[in-house]
Specification:
By secondary structure, the protein is α+β, with helices and mostly antiparallel strands. Helices cover about 40% and strands about 15% of the residues. It has helices at about 15-20, 25-45, 50-65, 70-85, 110-115, 150-160, 165-170, and strands at about 120-130, 135-145, 165, 180-185. The chain has a 4-stranded antiparallel beta sheet with strand order 3-2-1-4. A hairpin with a 5-residue loop joins strand 1 and strand 2 (about 135-145).
Length: about 190
């Protein structure tokens, strides 16, 4: 299966066929769900990702294999962008009167844990700050408790860093210290 190298368009991978190699029907479904979500996220943002990061992460995802290719690509890019952009360019202004919505992001199920049917959870606490356009963002996150290993912790941290919340998505969940707790669950039985 050939994967084109960085270009103006997102590489096309037949993730349905690749996820078909997973050992159980449940793992095939989870793999396909994560791939579809990751591909959608990448498609929306591909043009804004620096070409050097595209190339490095495409090579890394290709080495990982084609089951969970988009998931690996998405995670690599998110880590690279977060690490290089100390970092992030200011958000673009919405079009006139366009409503800006929050986008809470779930964690990506790490491929090695999925293949091993490994389950776990990560409970985090983050300082919440209101950014431009009134959306809440998580900062200074720390792990309160976890089970399952470092890959789950890394995935939960990435989900916290990429999420935004509108007031109606977060109301009543920020404590008096300005922190919000969030639990990320990893289970092969999740839909």
């Amino acid at each position: 299966m050939a994967v084109p190298w960085s270009s103006s368009s997102l590489p096309e991978v037949d993730y349905v066929a690749a996820c078909g190699s997973m050992p159980t029907a449940n793992q095939k479904q989870i793999c396909g769900n994560y791939e579809a979500m990751s591909k959608e996220d990448l498609t929306e943002n591909w043009q804004e990702i620096p070409i050097a990061i595209q190339a490095r992460c495409e090579a890394s995802a290709k080495r990982q294999g084609f089951a969970l290719y988009y998931t690996s690509l998405d995670l690599c890019i998110a880590n690279a962008v977060r690490g290089s952009a100390a970092n992030v360019a200011p958000p673009t202004q919405p079009e006139s009167n366009q409503e800006v919505e929050g986008k809470p992001v779930g964690p990506i199920y790490p491929e090695s844990e999925l293949e091993d049917n490994k389950t776990g959870f990560v409970k985090t606490s983050c300082r919440m700050v209101r950014g431009e356009h009134g959306l809440w963002r998580a900062r200074e996150c720390r792990v309160l408790s976890s089970a399952g290993g470092q890959d789950f912790i890394n995935s939960a941290a990435e989900a916290d860093a990429r999420s935004t919340w509108s007031d109606d998505q977060i109301a009543g969940k920020i404590d008096s210290n300005g922190r919000m707790e969030r639990t990320h669950s990893f289970s092969v039985n999740q839909e």
